[in-house]
Amino acid sequence: MKKLLLILLIPLLLISCKFDDDTEIIEMIEVIASPWERMSDFPGLERDDSVGFTINGEGYVGTGKTGGYHTDFYKYNPDSNSWNQIADINGVARQYCSSFTTGNDAYIFGGKTGADMYTNELQSYNSASNTWTNHAPLPAEGRFSSMSFKLNNTAYIIGGRTNVSFNEVWAYDIPSDSWVQKADLPFNARHESFTFSIDGFGFIGAGINMDGSSYNDVWKYDPASDTWTEMESFPGSIRSYAVGFSYLDNGFVCTGSNSQAETINEFWRYNSIDDSWTELEAPAYGKIRGTAIFKINNEVFVCNGLDENIDRSKELWRTTLTSN
Predict the structure, then answer these.
(1) Residue 110 within any structural domain of the chain
(2) How far is CA 145 from CA 29, 111, 288, in A?
């Protein structure tokens, strides 16, 4: 297998070395992403549109679709490179869930449960008790393929779809188990966008609308003012079904499918300091969409998905991000 070394020069830290003329030196820190490496396969059935999250240094992947929908969930231990099955989710099987994590608990929201059947359920998994708990459902109709990010003690559920795409933004207050609707998106309704969060701001980009429109715009959300600011557009292939994650002051985007529904093998880095994008070396896992993702410290894992031959996957891949 050909190995690829990804070297990223990322301006991450401002060093306050001021001189008499108020000149400030900016130090550039080098961040290196290791070649993507295949790890132990997911032990459940191959699937796409599963959901992932991280609790206390371990990764979790579950739900999704093979021939039918799934309720099963599995825990990945990075130290032993091994999987164990955990408790199934509550309720019916589903795919296209959203997720967020706080402390020892991870939450999954929404999903598609059948033909023209969608849920507004929110439930959390507690790793200490290996149990799922139902919480206050979204006070609106069910939906799937919503986007999510968590800022402080609030999770945001954005967009999504049924037979139409939504432009709604809902804030879930974790301590009080309550929902508040925020201002609608000031841009096109969509689903299956990528998201990540950096320095207390949420970012959303790309995605697709049920009218067939695809997008490459990127927006930053400020929770203090409940406002969105348009950022530099995503320069890669217009896509949906991509996944995003953040590391230090940077966001990353990989996997997905283009406006012709062709799977994509691209890897991009967003620099939040200068609002710029850089394309990285294509990952070794090939063209795929509908993956689950989880991040354990500086290690990022993508799991499952649908490849260019429309075959579902059990594969798990890892890259490690380091800085000098």
Answers:
(1) yes
(2) 36, 7, 17
Residue 15: name the closest of 3, 7, 23 by CA. Answer: 23
**Measured CA angle at 277 (ends 271, 324), to 5 deg:** 45
Burial of 4 from C-beta contacts in 10 A (0-12 / 13-18 / 19+): middle
User: What tens digit of pLDDT does each residue of 55-69 get?
Assistant: 999 999 999 999 999
Q: Is residue 20 part of a domain?
A: no
How does pLDDT run across 251-285, given as a tens digit for each residue? 999 999 998 889 999 999 999 999 999 999 999 99
Q: Write the DSSP string, 138-154.
A: PSS---BS-EEEEETTE
Spatial separation of the C-alpha atoms in residues 213 and 31, rounded to whole Å: 35
Using DSSP, state whether 220 is helix, strand or coil.
strand
Task: Tell me whether residue 170 is in a domain.
Answer: yes
Number of compact structural domains in the chain: 1
8 Å CB contact between 70 and 62: yes
Contact 97, 64 (CB under 8 A): no
Strands of 255-305, DSSP E: 257-258, 267-271, 276-280, 288-289, 292-296, 299-303
Domain containing 261 equals 38-323
Cβ(306)–Cβ(12) below 8 Å: no
Name the least confident of 28-32, 65-69, 88-92, 124-128: 28-32
pLDDT band at 12 (very low <50, low <70, confident <90, very high): very low
CATH number at residue 149: 2.120.10.80
Q: Are strands 257-258 and 250-254 parallel, antiparallel or unpaired?
A: unpaired
Among residues 283, 277, 246, the alpha carbon closest in space to that of 264 is found at 283
